[in-house]
Design a protein that fits this description.
Largest sheet of chain A: 7 strands, mixed
Strand content of chain B: under 5%
CATH class of the largest domain in chain A: Alpha Beta
Number of domains of chain B: 1
Number of strands of chain A: 10
Oligomer: heterodimer
Radius of gyration of chain A: 23 Å
Number of helices of chain A: 14
CATH class of chain B: Mainly Alpha
Radius of gyration of chain B: 23 Å
Largest sheet of chain B: none
Distance between the termini of chain B: 40 Å
Structural class of chain A: alpha/beta
Strand content of chain A: 15-25%
CATH superfamily of chain B: MetI-like
Number of domains of chain A: 2
Helix content of chain B: over 70%
Chain lengths: ~350, ~270
C-alpha cells in the first residue's frame, strides 16, 4: 500500500518535472504562443529554406505539420487539439470550412503583396472577394506517361487509357473525386455531375478499365513512376513537373476531354492563436521572389504574376503547366457536392476498387 | 482493511478498462446509429447487408484465413526445430527481431524488393524463370502479411512446445508409437493451446489490415479495415465506419469464444 503510494507519487513528480522542463526549453528557444506560427500544409509542398528565411526575417518560430488529404486536414481542425495558424485547403474544402464556420476572415490591408496575384485567381466562386483565403498554388489533374515503356503510343485523352494494349500499365491516385472525375470526363460529362444515371455509367466504364490498372495508390505513385514501375500514372500536375525535372522519359498531358482545375489557398482556421503572424507569413509567401523560389522547388503553378519574371522562361511557357485561355476553358473546378453526394461518389469508387480483374 | 486495500489496488485497472476499453466500444456502438447527416437511424446496418459490404466481409475473411493458414504451416515446423537447437533463445531472438522494426518501413522495403527492377525479379531472371509482376498481386499481399505476422505465431507455439514434458515422448516411444503417431496423439494435442493462441493473434488483426492493402496490394484487395479507414478519413461517414467496426468486433468475439473454450486440457 505504502509502496504503491510512493510509486504513484514518484510518477507524478517525474511527470511534472518533465512538463516543467519542456515548457522551459520551449521558452528558452523562443517557442511561446505569441511568438510561434503553426502551419498545416500538404506534404512536400514548400521549400524549407523559405521557412528558415521567414524565421530569420521576423523572429517568429515556425512549427510545421503536414497532411495528405483535405478531409484528414478538416477533421483535425474540427477536433481542435492543435491550434493551427495557417492551413492550405483546396477550393471545395474552403467552401465547406466556410459553411461550417471554421475560418477567420483575412485582413487584406496586412497583405500588400496581394497585388502581385494574377486577376484570374482573385475573387473565384468558392471564396468571393477572397474574404477568407489567399492563393498559394494551382494546377491540374492529368496523365503522366513513360515514353520508354509506351514507345510511340501517344496519349492525348482519357479514352486512350482504355486501350487494351495498356494491360497492367496504369497507376491511379487513391481519390474518389479524381478517379470518378476522370471517368465522367471521358464520357463528356461534368466532373461535378450529380445525375445518378451518369455516375453509374461512369462506374461501369471504370470497371472495364480494371485489366489495365496496376494499382491504386497514394503518394507512393511518385516513387513508382520514378522507378519506371508503370507506363502511366494519373497524377496532379506538380507531381508530374517534379518528376519530369528529374527524368527525361516522362511526359505529361492534360487530356483533351477536359480535367480538373484546382486551387490551394492559404486560410486562417478559427482556432488560430497567432493570426498576426499568419498574415505576415501570407504576405511573405506572396513576395514575388519568395514565390518564385517556392515554385521552382514545389513544381506546381504559381498564381503570382510578378513571380513569373524571376522564373525560367522554359517553365512558364510550358502550356501543360501554365495552360492558355482555350485550355483553361475545358478545365473544371470541383464543387462542394454535399455530404450525401460525396458519400455516393465514394461508394461507387469503393465498388470499383473491389471489382476483380 | 484487507478487502479495502485490495479494492484500492483495483482502481488503476478499473479506470484503465473503463476509459480505454469500455468507453471506446460504447462510442463506436453509439456512432453506428447515425447516418451521414447526423440523424438517428438503422440505415447503416441495412447498408452492411448489401452485396458490396457482404462481398468485402467475405474477402476479408478469406484473406485472413489464408494468412493464418500459411503462417501456421511455416511456424509450426520452425518452432519445433527451434526447440531442438542448441541456442534456442538466440534463434528465437533473431526471429523476433524484425518485429521491432516499424511495419510501414518493412512495407516500403518490400515495394523495392518486389518491384519490376527489384531484387526478387533480378533473382527470377538470373535463374531463368524470367521477370514477372510480383508487386500488387494476391501473392505479394499474402507473402508480406505472413512475413509480418510470423513472429506472433511462432512465439506461442514455441512456448507450448518448449513446455512439453520430454518423458511423455519417451513413454509414447516405449509403448510402440511411431513418430507420426507420437506427433498426432501426443505432441500436437498438447500444443494445441499454443496453436490456438497464435491463430487468434494472427487472424484477428489480419481481418482489419489496411495499410498493406494499399502499399503492397495496390488497393486490389479491399478489406473491412480499408473501408473503415476510408469512411473515417475521406467520406467522414463515421456512422458507416463504426457499423463496420461493430461487425468486426462481433466477429472477433465469436472467434475468441469458438477457439478459446478448450481449457480442460488433456492431462
Amino acid at each position: 500500500m505504502k509502496k504503491l503510494i510512493q510509486a504513484l507519487a514518484a510518477v507524478l513528480i517525474v511527470s511534472f518535472a518533465l512538463l516543467y522542463i519542456v515548457s522551459g526549453l520551449n521558452t528558452s528557444q523562443g517557442y511561446t504562443s505569441s511568438n510561434t506560427l503553426t502551419i498545416f500544409n500538404w506534404g512536400d509542398y514548400i521549400d524549407a529554406e523559405l521557412v528558415d528565411k521567414f524565421e530569420q526575417e521576423t523572429g517568429i518560430k515556425v512549427i510545421y505539420e503536414t497532411f495528405d488529404s483535405n478531409e484528414a486536414m478538416m477533421t483535425k481542425i474540427e477536433q481542435g487539439g492543435t491550434a493551427y495558424d495557417i492551413a492550405v485547403p483546396s477550393e471545395y474544402a474552403i467552401e465547406k470550412m466556410k459553411e461550417e464556420d471554421l475560418l477567420l476572415p483575412v485582413n487584406h490591408s496586412k497583405i500588400p503583396n496581394l497585388k502581385y496575384i494574377d486577376q484570374r485567381f482573385i475573387d473565384l466562386p468558392f471564396d468571393p472577394g477572397n474574404a477568407y483565403s489567399i492563393p498559394y498554388f494551382w494546377g491540374t489533374v492529368g496523365i503522366l506517361y513513360n515514353t520508354d515503356i509506351l514507345g510511340d503510343n501517344k496519349i492525348t485523352n482519357w479514352n486512350d487509357l482504355w486501350d487494351p494494349d495498356l494491360k497492367n500499365q496504369i497507376l491511379l491516385i487513391d481519390g474518389a473525386r479524381e478517379v470518378m472525375g476522370m471517368a465522367l470526363n471521358s464520357l463528356n460529362y461534368s466532373l461535378n455531375d450529380k445525375n445518378k444515371g451518369h455516375l453509374i455509367e461512369a462506374k461501369e466504364k471504370l470497371d472495364h478499365l480494371t485489366p489495365n490498372i496496376k494499382a491504386i495508390v497514394g503518394d507512393e505513385i511518385r516513387m513508382l513512376m520514378e522507378n519506371d514501375e508503370a507506363g502511366i500514372g494519373v497524377v496532379w500536375s506538380g507531381t508530374a513537373q517534379e518528376l519530369m525535372w528529374e527524368k527525361d522519359n516522362l511526359e505529361y498531358v492534360v487530356p483533351e476531354e477536359g480535367s480538373n482545375l484546382w486551387f490551394d489557398n492559404m486560410v486562417i482556421p478559427k482556432t488560430a492563436k497567432n493570426p498576426e503572424a499568419a498574415h505576415q507569413f501570407m504576405n511573405f509567401m506572396l513576395d514575388p521572389e519568395n514565390a518564385a523560389q517556392n515554385t521552382e522547388y514545389v513544381g506546381y503553378s504559381t498564381p503570382n504574376k510578378e513571380a513569373l519574371n524571376y522564373m525560367d522562361e522554359e517553365t512558364i511557357s510550358d502550356e501543360r503547366f501554365y495552360p492558355d485561355e482555350e485550355m483553361t476553358a475545358r478545365l473544371e473546378v470541383y464543387e462542394n457536392l454535399g455530404k450525401k453526394m460525396l458519400s455516393y461518389y465514394n461508394e461507387l469508387f469503393l465498388e470499383f476498387k473491389m471489382h476483380k480483374k | 482493511m484487507r478487502t479495502n486495500s485490495r479494492n484500492f489496488y483495483l482502481i488503476p485497472y478499473v479506470l484503465w478498462i473503463a476509459l480505454f476499453v469500455v468507453t471506446p466500444l460504447l462510442l463506436v456502438l453509439y456512432y453506428s446509429f447515425f447516418n451521414i447527416e447526423g440523424h438517428l437511424t438503422l440505415e447503416n446496418y441495412r447498408k452492411f447487408f448489401t452485396p458490396v459490404y457482404l462481398k468485402m466481409t467475405l474477402s476479408s475473411f478469406w484473406y485472413a484465413f489464408l494468412i493464418t493458414l500459411f503462417s501456421l504451416l511455416i511456424s509450426y515446423p520452425t518452432a519445433y526445430l527451434l526447440t531442438k537447437t542448441k541456442h534456442k533463445q538466440l534463434w528465437l531472438l533473431l526471429i523476433i527481431l524484425p518485429s521491432w522494426i516499424n511495419l510501414l518501413l518493412k512495407a516500403y522495403a518490400f515495394l523495392g524488393i518486389f518491384g519490376t527492377y527489384g531484387a526478387a525479379n533480378s533473382f527470377l531472371e538470373a535463374v531463368g524463370i524470367g521477370g514477372r509482376q510480383i508487386l500488387f498481386t494476391d501473392f505479394s499481399f499474402i507473402f508480406v502479411s505472413v512475413y509480418i505476422f510470423l513472429p506472433f505465431m511462432i512465439l506461442p507455439i514455441f512456448n507450448s512446445l518448449d513446455e512439453l514434458n520430454p518423458t511423455l515422448l519417451d513413454a509414447s516411444n516405449d509403448l510402440g508409437g511411431s513418430s507420426w503417431v507420437t506427433f498426432k496423439r501426443v505432441i500436437f494435442p498438447l500444443t494445441l493451446d499454443g496453436v490456438k493462441a497464435g491463430c487468434q493473434i494472427v487472424f484477428i488483426p489480419a481481418l482489419s489490415l489496411f495499410m498493406l492493402t494499399r502499399l503492397i496490394a495496390g488497393n486490389r484487395v479491399i478489406t473491412l479495415g480499408t473501408a473503415i479507414e476510408q469512411h473515417f478519413l475521406v467520406t467522414q461517414d463515421w456512422g458507416m465506419g463504426s457499423t463496420i467496426a461493430v461487425f468486426l468486433i462481433i466477429a472477433m468475439v465469436l472467434i475468441m469464444v469458438l477457439t478459446g473454450r478448450r481449457k480442460r486440457g488433456i492431462l
